[in-house]
What does this fold into?
Amino acid sequence: MHVYVMPLKRFLACHVCEGNLFLQREIKMNTTGMSFLDLDWANKSADGAICRRCGYVHTFMGNGLQWLSPEQVKPEDLPADPLAGQQ
It folds into this structure.
């Protein structure tokens, strides 16, 4: 999936490899106090965008992201991918 960062009005590119396809996953933002009390389940969650190429996890709090399937995005709207077409 592609990630559109709404406050910036542009698509996300991986900070490590500049890929633009991501997997979505909920990430718990654990705190020491809640872990000490065995209440990890009560911590806030973040949206994780995991790069499909290199596995780097980008973490976002709040509602500033929009997840779009590749069919919904015009290729010319995506950031340049210097490794496109390479393994």
User: Anything to note?
Assistant: The chain has a mean pLDDT of 84. The longest helix spans residues 32-36.
